[in-house]
Amino acid sequence: MPKLSIDGQEYEVAAGRTILQAIDDLGLLMNGVDVPHYCWHPHLSIDGSCRLCQVEVEGIPKLQIACNTPVKDGMVVHTTTDRVKRAREGVMELLLINHPLDCPICDQAGECKLQDYAYDYGVPHARTQEPRRAAKKGVELGPTIMFDQERCILCRRCVRFCREVPETGEIGVFDRGDRSVIETLPGMPLDNPYSMNVADICPVGALTTKDFRFKIRVWFLEDVKGVCTGCANGCNVFLGVANNKVYRYVPRRNDAVNQTWMCDAGRMSYKQIGSEARLKLAFVRGANGLLEPASTSAAISVAAARLRRVIDAKGPGVVAAVASAHATNEDLYTLRRLLEALGTETSGVAVPLGAHDDLLVKAEKVANAAGARALGFGDAQAVVDRVRGGGVDALIVLGHDLLDPGYAGDPSVLSHLDTVIVLDTHRSELERVAHVLLPVRHAAEKAGTLTNHSGRAQRIQPAVEPAWEASADGEILARLGAALGLTGFDGKWDVRSVSRELGALPGFAGADLAGVGDLGRPLSSGSPAGALR
Amino acid sequence: MQKAPYITGHLTEHCGDDSYGTLDGYLQRGGYAAAKKAITEMTPEQVVDTVKASGLQGRGGACFPTGMKWSFMPKNTTKPKYICCNGDESEPGSFKDRLLLERTPHQLIEGLLIGAWAMGAQKTFVYIRGEYAAPATQMERAVEEAYAKGYLGKNVMGTGFAHDIVVARGAGAYIAGEETGLIESLEGKKAQPRKKPPFPAEHGVFGMPTTVNNVESFCHAPHIISRGPQWFRSMGTEKSPGTTLFGVSGHVVRPGLFELPLGTPLDTLIFEHAGGLREGRKVKGVIPGGLSVPILPAGQLDVPMANEALQQRKSALGTGGIMVMDDTTCMVRVGCVISWFYREESCGQCTQCREGTGWLHKLMERIERGAGSMDDLDVLLDVADKMEAKTICALSDAAAWPVQGLLRHFRADFEAHVKHGKCPFPQSFEL
Asked: CA nearest B192 in A: which residue?
């Protein structure tokens, strides 16, 4: 392993890396060692054109670009010398001579690398009298992205992204010199399942998403670390939150999961959080056959009474449960414990399937199918079959994935049941057959862990608070257990202690809320199912 | 065009004769003997060592030792190795390779065969700038002839050595003359220089080990092989041996090409060979090596035309394209023309070059209009400094150096524009 000295500090770095890559590997880039950069991106090919990352390397007369200079053993690098400072000033000044300086009306302001670096490395005055370059404004590059040519600094990250990640190559650089412009190829709009990532990697306000632009100033947003729940990949995201509202998802770097990318469908899934279709009240089916609003406590009491009646009449074997793979490991662990306390073994998880690709998008359109399986939930088809065969009288349903055409398809399959208890974030056709409906929290509203397709447990935390009474599935189930008088259920449910309990089980060892950290942790081998029984 | 230079040397002594461009004519003058000697009597290492010993410097502008460059080609590789012959000749003021391509194509083919043998290259791409229609036609014809008579192909001159030559045409960009810009263009892409590393010897045309040399550099090779390195060193200077083709243009009576030893004094070239200036005119400034090198003032014409001597005067030999300007010339207008050219030709990748070339040009234009200030002169130098030695290729330097040269020697012209609020040289060429 070559030794590299950076600003007097010695580091050992992996062989075959460039200076900037080595600094990034060490976790020091812009986090202890400041080497500003525009064109370089950890997950794109090296371009070497912005020339901002120049550093001084002892023994080489010219300044070297850190992004493309291979580390050699014994290399001595300086990032803070006057020559480096002056070179950065030069790049910053030259990048700004044609920039429109329209920060007051630019949506990137506040998270703009041109602003940031101009403050940190630029000069505070302009020396140009000449008119700035006029170019196209408000260009629609495709269904998701708007482009402002005047703001573009031609770092070409978007060009490389489209060529290298979705491999669609819609964007190119046209013309040359100071007439160079980014454009989409003729007849080829920017339209691919990952198109919105170009707005994230654009260091300036040239590329913005139609969805987020002009919605809110970014400095009002708090970035809450979370996980996208659109599929089993579990892309790490920042939830942009203000006024108790999620305004956007942007990918959060996790090289083991999603690098720095996420798909457009996942990115837009934040809209489900504030959707009009959220289930905001508990409902209980009255004597007239209609659903009537109720308090959560009352609804839980009704659910417990109905379940107790069924069990007293026919025994626990006729009670079944369909788990949701949207629920957290902690929720599902509580469900597992509830079913065992009840003494029923009929359960399964509904996992709707959809399109997938080789990049990030997984076929399983839920965030926690692997977690559900690890907790011993088989496929929900077995439950559906048993329902159809008449072996079930009472059903506890988490979520509404049971309605997926791959499973029940239609709620009428459940219409003959004595008791259907539904815990859901959103309204669905299950309303037609449910006897008790209980609103639960969305992943953006609660803490817990989710296990992605590769068995990596990842943490979510509450970013917003629902404006109505809603609890995590686990808490509802714990209260239901208490209402049923089951041993081990006192009605209290604290996600941290549940998580610790879960994290003590084989398979989930160390994968509790604290243990998974910001970047998740692979589940160990071994299954908790045995320990649970 | 000229069929031959006004003064000829080993490269050009027969090129006035039309038959020299044909295979028969070339053979009658002893052609291909050097290539045959190299392939049959010398090892590749001996050829490289001979070229190294001759001290031949690349004639494309950077004056890099040719033998050394040849030795960079990897020896133990399973990949095919390529040669690129740079016939893009895009440097304004330079027009020597055009003559060599058009009048001495077999001399070039022979030089390429020697280089191919020395470097173990399977294929050569001769890249000729798009504007050079006639030279490309001549080169293509000569290559066909050489194939037909067994001087190229699977069994070169019956030696068992195989080599192919492909003639490729450029599409018209200055930067296609930069070696990696040329490679990109050759691959069918936009001529944008590649970042280094990797260098072409490792990752060149289509990712294969490649050496890029100028047309004239290859043309010297047969003569060095047949007459020996000592003969080559008997001409020119200690550090810059041999002859080169100087192209003189501008305000001289007899503009054209002159094959002369390196180190020939600039004033000898201008006054003795190029016939001096028109009556009543005096030299104001001379660009000694193509548009990208800093200008020299009238007082420095005694400089020997060799890179080491020109560098002492803060200029360079470049491609030996000498542009002479008389005392009617407005040096701010010269600055406008030069900075416009580099603004037009910058590929646009690197920040300093893309933005800096445009800024330099705008500043020059404003000063020429009479709307400049004294501060602008400092800004010009500061921008040039910020552009120098910081980019992927040397175009940014090529745009910065002339500005530095103009302000070093002709600051008074710039100040006069500022003071008078207009151009004080009404007789100068028009923009």
From this structure: A176
Q: A360: closest CA among A498, A265, A449, A499?
A: A265
Cα–Cα distance measured from residue A200 to residue A217, given in angstroms and rounded to the nearest whole number: 15
The reply to whether ipTM tops 0.90 is yes
A265 in B contact zone (CB under 8 Å): no
Provide the sign of the torsion angle of the four alpha carbons B387, B388, B390, B391, taken in this order: positive
User: What does the block give as tokens for B35?
Assistant: 């290539």
Task: Please list every residue in chain A whose beta carbon sits closer than 8 Å to the beta carbon of residue B390.
Answer: 51, 54, 62-63, 87, 90
Q: How far apart are CA B146 and CA B32, in angstroms?
A: 10
Task: Using CB atoms, pick whichever of A48, A50, A90 lies closest to residue B386.
Answer: A90
Q: Which of B179, B210, B233 delimits the end of a domain?
A: B233
Quote the CA–CA distance of A505 and A497 in Å, as a whole number: 13
Last residue of a domain, one of B198, B213, B233: B233
Residues of chain A with CATH 3.10.20.740: 3-93
**Interchain pair B358, A98: CB under 8 A:** yes
- Which residue range(s) make up the domain with B375? 331-420
> pLDDT in tens for each of the 533 residues of chain A?
899 999 999 999 999 999 999 999 999 999 999 999 999 999 999 999 999 999 999 999 999 999 999 999 999 999 999 999 999 999 999 999 999 999 999 999 999 999 999 999 999 899 998 999 999 999 999 999 999 999 999 999 999 999 999 999 999 999 999 999 999 999 999 999 999 999 999 999 999 999 999 999 999 999 999 999 999 999 999 999 999 999 999 999 999 999 999 999 999 999 999 999 999 999 999 999 999 999 999 999 999 999 999 999 999 999 999 999 999 999 999 999 999 999 998 999 999 999 999 999 999 999 999 999 999 999 999 999 999 999 999 999 999 999 999 998 899 999 999 999 999 999 999 999 999 999 999 999 999 999 999 999 999 999 999 999 999 999 999 999 999 999 999 999 999 999 999 999 988 988 999 999 999 999 987 666 555 54
Q: B50 and B190: one domain?
A: yes
A-chain CB neighbours of B176 within 8 Å are none
Contact status, residue A440 vs residue A470, Cβ threshold 8 Å: yes
- Searching chain B, which residue's CA lies closest to the CA of residue A181? B348
- A180 lies within 8 A of chain B by CB: yes
Query: How far apart, in whole angstroms, are the C-alpha atoms of residue A316 and residue A340?
Result: 10
In angstroms, how far is the first alpha carbon of chain B from the final one? 26
Distance CA B430, CA B410 (A): 19
Name the fold adopted by A3-93. Answer: Ubiquitin-like (UB roll) (3.10.20)
Quote the pTM value.
0.95
Interface test with A, best of B203, B347, B350, B385 (most A CBs within 10 A): B350
Q: B96-103 and B215-227 helices cross at what angle (nearest 10)?
A: 60
How is domain A282-532 classified at the architecture level of CATH?
3-Layer(aba) Sandwich (3.40)
Number of other CB atoms surrounding residue B110 within 10 Å: 28
The Cα B56–Cα B222 span in angstroms is 12
